[in-house]
Amino acid sequence: EVKDNKSSEIKKQQLQKYATKKQADLEKKWKIGYNQFFEGKYGEAIATENQVLKEDSKFYKAYAVKGIALAYNGNFKEGMQQIDNSLKLKPNYGYARFNKALANELYGYYPEAIKWYKKDLEVEKFEWSYYGIASIYGRKGDINNTVKYLKLAIAINPNIKNVAKNEKDFDKVKGRKEFKQLIS
Questions:
Q1: By the 8 A CB rule, do 56 and 36 touch?
Q2: At how many degrees (to 10) do helices 42-55 and 2-38 cross?
Q3: 32-86 pLDDT tens trace
Q4: Residue 149 CA, distance from chain mean position
Q5: Distance between CA 128 and CA 133 in Å, rounded?
Q6: In this structure, are residues 169 and 138 in contact, taking their beta carbons and an 8 Å threshold?
Q7: Distance, CA of 27 to chain centre
């Protein structure tokens, strides 16, 4: 009986080791797709994340990357479905919330984008969510909200000043002294 218990424990440890390695391998593959998205290789990112999802249909991170890559690749509807799949599996996954906002912004659905940027901020203080909100207000010429949200982004990451200087979304407010003071 002691031998059986020890054998069972060894099998349990081996299974745990296998599961941990499989998870690590999926993380590596997911990260490749994530990087492909940031390199503008949307089709490759989608294909990579499809491989991850084929191995593990509950890998929520892969749905988030696949979704934003689909949106950038011209397929908003399917992209949103994929991001929603990620959020069904992990409702508080900040990157999926951010991607839902970003996709909405990309397609000009600004009120929905702001709503989702704020939902992202409920779970993480992400400078790019503040920046996204600021850029939407900048397009509208709303100097007060532009400065309010851009200030919050800069407080997290001062390098955002350099990005904002060349951002066309701020063209309507770039000449305003409040904006100039903030990014100087």
A1: no
A2: 170
A3: 999 999 999 999 999 999 999 999 999 999 999 999 999 999 999 999 999 999 9
A4: 18
A5: 9
A6: yes
A7: 16
| 96, 64 Cβ separation under 8 angstroms | yes
- Secondary structure in 3-state letters for 38-81: HCCCHHHHHHHHHHHHHHCCCCHHHHHHHHHHHHHCCCHHHHHH
Tell whether pTM > 0.85: yes
Which phi-psi region, left, alpha or beta, contains residue 71 (left: φ > 0; alpha: ψ -120 to 50)? Answer: alpha
Contact indicator for 160, 130 with CB cutoff of 8 Å: no
Query: How far is the C-alpha of 150 from the C-alpha of 167, rounded, in Å?
Result: 12
Identity of the residue numbered 64 = A
CA dihedral for 74, 71, 108, 140, sign (positive or negative): negative
d(CA 25, CA 63): 17
